[in-house]
Amino acid sequence: MGAIDLLFPAFAMAALTFIVMGRMAVERLGQLARERIHPQAVASSAQMAARIKDTRAADNFRNLFELPVLFYLALVVGVQLDLASPLTVGLAWAFVALRVVHSAIHCSYNKVRHRFLAYVSGGLVLVVLWGVLLAGAL
Questions:
Q1: Does the keyword Transmembrane helix apply (predicted)?
Q2: Helix orientation angle between 56-63 and 86-107, rounded to the nearest 10 degrees
Q3: Contacts (Cβ under 8 Å, ≥6 apart) of 15
Q4: HEC assignment per residue over 29-42
Q5: Which of 23, 136, 132, 130 has its CA nearest to residue 67?
């Protein structure tokens, strides 16, 4: 197992982020057009929140820059310290899978309990990944 194997989950997370970004753009632009909202009328986040009704994709897009930041850093640390192993790569893919589930829930039916379970599970996987990396670095 090589360091490159730790980068593929990063590419997958980036792809998920781009997919959610696209969905957010389609939803926002669609609503602006349907309701004839001038872009300047939603220039600030407060104005956007007051005018845009469906914010699920936008909310999820913001979430993809929270825990995943630690994920990306963990992968860089793993690559730099040559800590790619079946365990670290498996944990990285597990995190990606849980973020896909989280995004799918968040951007669709948005049941908070289900979304929270995916979020917490991903967070725990990330903590374990960091623990494994720390143990390997010592």
A1: yes
A2: 160
A3: none
A4: HHHHHHCCCCHHHH
A5: 130
CA-to-CA dists, residue 123 to 24, 53, 79, 118, 119, angstroms: 24, 29, 21, 9, 6
**What's residue 2's pLDDT?**
85
Output the furthest CA–CA distance in the chain (Å, rounded): 59
pLDDT tens digits, one per residue of 21-70: 999 999 989 998 998 988 898 889 888 888 888 889 999 999 999 999 99
Q: Which amino acid is at 27?
A: E
HSE-up (13 A, CA, CB side) for residue 26: 8
Each domain of the chain, given as residue ranges in start order, spans: 4-137
- What's the CATH number for 4-137? 1.20.120
Closest CA to 91 of 120, 123, 61, 113: 123
Q: What is the predicted pLDDT for the residue at 17?
A: 98
Contact indicator for 118, 105 with CB cutoff of 8 Å: yes
Tell me the residue type at 73. L
Helix (H, G, I), strand (E, B) or coil at 108: coil
What DSSP assignment string belongs to 1-18? --THHHHHHHHHHHHHHH
